[in-house]
Automatic annotation (TrEMBL):
PROSITE patterns: BRCT
Compositionally biased spans, kind Acidic residues: 504-515
Biased composition (Basic and acidic residues): 614-625
Identification of the protein by name: BRCT domain-containing protein
Gene Ontology biological process terms from the UniProt entry: DNA double-strand break attachment to nuclear envelope; double-strand break repair
InterPro entries referenced in this protein's UniProt entry, alphabetically: BRCT_dom, BRCT_dom_sf, CellCycle_DNARepair_Reg
Biased composition (Polar residues): 487-496
Annotated BRCT domain residues: 2-100, 100-191, 340-412
């Protein structure tokens, strides 16, 4: 019976591409049709016929004009691997894993886990499934990646013994891919000898190829493709048919001269297309800027909109691509992206095409690009952090980001926040230039800012004004982009004006025909066309197509919504992945937090009755000890509302020094949900902490940093009681008391928390504190402590001119507040501090630091880490000679000086 055949009910077409040769196309067709599928031939021009009648489109990429409509009709767009996989398994496999959509970057991954903690395993599976991959519990021949921490397990031994063609990777690879939202090379993560764990891994990382930049280095087109007059029109169509039966409109803002106009006209004709000056009649609009009436009309009517660089690329490849797929293939904003006007950007560790592309993107975004980096630069974009520029940027407090920040700011039409850790993540032994150019235009953001169908007419379009002919000399389009000095909201509104009230364009025949860009006489139409006609204003559901199909009932561009709908069956995996991606630590450092919903920031309450505590130091080690999080307000005992996460957040709590959840992710998830029902939300961020829970006073980074937030500090009994009784305990009954630690460390917790409340995270306001690179605990540890107390931490490597000079007195500082009572007052104004260890590399920097301080009229002090720890825990700046470091106190320094 036909119903029993493998591909029964499948109606398909195949689009040729780089991997689909005519021979392969014929073979795929044979596999499908012999098992019951129906082949639907393409039209003569290569376009897809009757999209609504298809169930599958087989292609190796999504760069074909009908892709958006295919998603609207829920047609499966799959790679040829779907055919092969279905044929081998004897059943139709999941199309999602075979999607050519580059955003599903795990689509070729089939993962199997070997002896991983349950939480890490669940997170990896969720992320893989959500991004197009598959999971296999047993090790089969289809598995592409085995995830393991070492080779001492059965799966890894089997891979080695049988020499299977799968890769054994550390879970860090998945973690870094998910943090970046891109697929990076597995090489540095491969067992048995992963490069990221080698001792010599600080060497610069060699750049790899950048396949995402094919033909999209600049928005400014270079020389046009070579034009060779064909022997005959039929030969021309065989050679170049990418614009067959399409009408192309070139915008007036291209400022094209007559010679280039003639060349472009012949190229369009040779590619099977024709020119038009009517925006309603065109299929393709080519312009340079995102403004002007023709641009808005073409965009609203969902024409293909690209720039001249895209046009050249399509002609060169003789293959259709989506101009939204490359940032510099779409018209550029005339005055850049809002927020970039005051930025000065330099690049490091990018070379070749990647560097050219990022330079051009900086300029199109409206930033000032500098080849050399100086102290007045605002951003350094780097592919990895091993370079002199990166070292200098740390010393000069210049923002260090990867290229994703620039690309996504441009794609989303707004400068992105640097607090997003995707933009400051640099996987070890990975050169991020390999993923340059993979970001696509966010069409919804472009639509909202530049041509949303709202009220009023387009800016600068006066009633009765006529539109110049698109190729009549150097006529510039009206500037409707966000202008300098114009508030963003008003600039956006100016783009969103209705086209219904726009003036009539000039009749084409009212002009003297002297341009090579005029369509051939037989194609010119003698009619006046109102730009805001019904056709231009129609929604897609009102439009009709040449093949007689009507578009599906929809409003606007619905392709993304349809794509998400098609993934409805996997919504749980997607939601789980999203939680895993956002939480602290990612995949590698902990398990799932399934019970924490998104919460609004909680205002820190004032809790009366500070603590008598009980504590201990963890020596001088600053390692993080499994932290969790919560925020707080003093409250009376409260019964848990089980089964709901809608309970008001009373405390944002951070737990440190407790190992009850270590290695038991299921228990952690269950108890986190129980706490949330009591109004306690866990956090790992000191800046969010309003309730700190610890067994004693600890000298860990998280404990020390959290004190700047002046939280209530409770003992572990508070947590025990909450979990055992399902009732919120009284904070005052569990205040941490540790007299021995207070005496040893030289501060009182009660007084410190009161001072912290006065300081309001501004104890070190206006201070710049320098830290050596080799200091115990690492630079980032001290940077977090300094930052949460309002100061600036800079890495010191001996460069000159990094010390600004004495701080200004509080009486002259308009931003000074009550924290000045605790920060040393006038005695500290001319003091500048270097936190250092006693390694030879560090001691060599001490005298140079003091000399630089003297040049700036300051007194340089080189201090132990204890100086910072004391002021952060006591919330008061005090000086004691015991914290100062001097060369004569370093054992063996005289010998070390000569080495």
């Amino acid at each position: 019976m036909d119903e029993d055949r493998l591909f029964h009910g499948v109606s398909f077409t195949i689009l040729p591409g780089t991997t689909i040769t005519p021979e392969r196309e014929e073979w795929y067709m044979h596999l499908l049709t012999k098992d019951g599928a129906t082949f639907i031939p393409r039209r003569d021009d290569g376009s897809i016929n009757n999209i609504a009648g298809h169930t599958h489109i087989i292609t190796d990429d999504i760069d074909f004009p009908e892709y958006g409509r295919a998603l609207e009709y829920n047609v499966h767009v799959v790679r040829p691997s779907w055919v092969i996989s279905s044929h081998e398994k004897g059943r139709q496999t999941q199309p999602r894993q075979h999607s050519p959509d580059p955003s599903m970057f795990f689509r070729e991954v089939i993962v199997s886990c070997a002896d991983l903690p349950e939480g890490d395993k669940d997170a990896i599976i969720a992320g893989t499934l959500a991004l197009g991959g598959l999971y296999s519990a047993p090790l089969t021949k289809l598995v592409t990646h085995v995830v393991s921490m070492d080779m001492h397990n059965d799966k890894c031994r089997t891979v080695e013994a049988k020499q299977l063609a799968c890769k054994i990777v550390l879970p860090h690879w998945f973690d870094d891919c998910l943090k970046l939202g891109k697929l990076i090379n597995e090489g540095p993560y491969l067992l048995p000898d992963p490069e990221i764990l080698r001792a010599t891994s600080d060497e610069p990382v060699r750049a790899r190829s950048t396949p995402g930049l094919d033909g999209a280095l600049s928005a400014v087109a270079g020389a046009p493709p070579a034009y060779n007059p064909p022997i005959s029109p039929s030969d021309s169509r065989k050679q170049l048919a990418v614009f067959k039966d399409k009408k192309v409109l070139f915008s007036k803002d291209l400022n094209i001269n007559d010679h280039l106009a003639k060349t472009l006209r012949h190229l369009v004709s040779q590619a099977g297309g024709a020119l038009t000056t009517d925006v309603e009649e065109c299929n393709v609009y080519i312009g340079h800027y995102r403004d002007g009436m023709d641009y808005v009309a073409a965009s609203r009517a969902e024409k293909t909109v690209g720039n001249l660089s895209w046009f050249y690329n399509v002609i060169n490849r003789n293959k259709w691509t989506n101009p939204l797929g490359k940032l510099l293939h779409y018209p550029v904003p005339r005055n850049g992206i809002p927020g970039f006007e005051n930025t000065r950007i330099s690049l490091s560790n990018y070379s070749g095409e990647a560097r050219i592309y990022l330079e051009n993107l900086c300029k199109e975004a409206g930033a000032e690009f500098t080849k050399t980096m100086k102290q007045d630069n605002t951003h350094l974009i780097t592919a990895h952090t091993h370079s002199e520029k990166c070292d200098a940027a740390q010393e000069w407090n210049i923002n260090i980001v990867n290229h994703l920040w620039l690309e996504e700011s441009y794609a989303k039409c707004a400068i992105q926040s640097l607090t997003n850790k995707r933009y400051t993540h640099f996987p070890p032994r990975t050169n991020l230039s390999e993923i340059v150019g993979q970001t696509t235009i966010d069409f919804k953001k472009v639509q909202k800012l530049y041509f949303a169908s709202n009220e009023k007419t387009i800016k600068d379009a006066e009633p009765g004004a006529k539109t110049p002919h698109p190729f009549r000399g150097a006529v510039k389009a009206p500037d409707t982009s966000p202008g300098k000095g114009v508030p963003q909201s008003s600039a956006a509104t100016s783009k969103a004006r209705s086209f219904a009230d726009a003036p009539e364009p000039m009749d084409v025949d009212d002009q003297e025909d002297t341009s090579e860009f005029m369509p051939a006489p037989q194609t010119a139409k003698k009619r006046k066309t109102r730009v805001g006609s019904d056709a231009a204003m129609a929604t897609p559901s009102m439009l009709r197509h040449k093949d007689g199909e009507s578009t599906p009932p929809t409003t606007g561009r619905a392709s993304k919504e349809k794509a998400l709908t098609s993934l409805h069956a996997l919504k749980d995996d997607v939601l789980l992945y999203d939680r895993e991606r956002k939480r602290k630590g990612g995949v590698v450092h902990g398990g799932r937090r399934t019970a924490e919903p998104e919460e609004a920031p909680v205002t820190k309450p004032t809790v009366k009755g500070r603590n008598k505590r009980k504590s201990d130091d963890t020596a001088d080690d600053h390692a993080e000890i499994s932290e969790t999080e919560i925020a707080g307000v003093k409250s009376k005992a409260k019964k848990a509302k089980t089964g709901t996460n809608d309970t008001e957040v009373l405390f944002t709590m951070m737990v440190t020094g407790d190992e009850r959840w270590l290695g038991n992710m299921k228990k952690e998830s269950a108890e986190t949900a129980k706490l949330r029902a009591l109004g306690i939300k866990l956090t790992a961020e000191p800046a969010e902490c309003t309730l700190l829970c610890a067994p004693r006073i600890l000298r860990t980074k998280k404990f020390i940093a959290a004190l700047a937030n002046s939280p209530s500090v409770v003992d572990i009994g508070f947590l025990d009681e909450a979990l055992s009784t399902n009732i919120l305990p009284d904070v005052d009954e569990h205040l941490l008391s540790d007299d021995e630690a207070e005496e040893r460390l030289g501060f009182r917790m009660d007084a410190a928390l009161e001072r912290g409340e006065v300081n309001a995270n501004r104890l070190l306001h206006g201070w710049t504190i320098f830290v050596t690179e080799k200091v115990s605990g690492k630079f980032d540890t001290y940077k977090e402590i300094i930052s949460i107390n309002g100061g600036t931490a800079l890495l010191y490597k001996g460069r000159t001119n990094v010390i600004a000079g004495p701080r200004i007195p509080a009486s002259e500082d308009p931003e000074a507040g009550p924290e000045t009572e605790n920060n040393g007052k006038e005695e500290e104004l001319d003091k500048v501090y270097l936190i250092s260890g006693t390694a030879n590399e560090e001691v060599k920097l001490w005298e140079k630091f003091r000399q630089e301080a003297r040049k700036k009229g300051c007194h340089g002090r080189v201090v132990k880490t204890d100086w910072l720890i004391n002021l952060a825990m006591s919330q008061k700046v005090e000086w004691d000679e015991k914290w100062e470091l001097k060369e004569e106190t370093v054992p063996g320094w005289e010998e070390g000086r000569g080495k």
